[in-house]
Automatic annotation (TrEMBL):
InterPro entries on file: Thio2_N, Thioredoxin-like_sf, Thioredoxin_CS, Thioredoxin_domain
This protein's name: Thiol reductase thioredoxin
Keywords attached to this entry: Disulfide bond, Electron transport, Redox-active center, Transport
Domain Thioredoxin, first and last residues per copy: 89-195
Entry keyword annotation includes Phosphoprotein: no
Amino acid sequence: MTGFRACSKREYRDGCFGAGSNVLRDRFAGELKRESRETIFKKMNTNIGGHVTRRELLCLDCGQVNRLPPDRPTAVAQCGGCGQLLAPAAVQETTPDRLAAALRTDMLPLIVEFWAPWCGPCAKMDAELQVVANRFQGDMRFAKLNAEAHPGACARYGVQAMPTLVLFRDGREQARHIGVQPSVLIAEWVVGSAARST
Ligand SMILES: [Zn+2]
């Protein structure tokens, strides 16, 4: 198809699917300490005064907006409409309409992978992103959007290369990354982007 490209050779190489990938993955397991994660995500969900700005999540399964009680951990919160976990340890397929609705309501950052069926690196990215989604379950949400099926969404968000990750927070794009990379680097990118914004 036209209008998009797969990630470049350089991006692909820097995606680290060569030597060292497993080493990085092991390092990731040791480095992301629980305390630092909690500090970062606590900041992400509060404003300067320390008050939670909003406690809502749109269910990516059924589209219902859920208001969460302050004492309800997001990791176990379920949708009042369909009963699904609101922040599951999975990358959920989404649509442009649902994405737009989530950006209007969500209290958690949302990372969206724009992908295409013809894109080989996207399949690798799926596997890596799934590892990260497991890691950050309850802290942020992960979705994927089929760029071939929804070219209008790519135009709307200025996405031209596959795969592209966009981190949305408080309804706005916070950061983006083009090309496949291992889970440890995706995780570092996520945490680094979050830290910069506070
Ligand atoms: Zn639901």
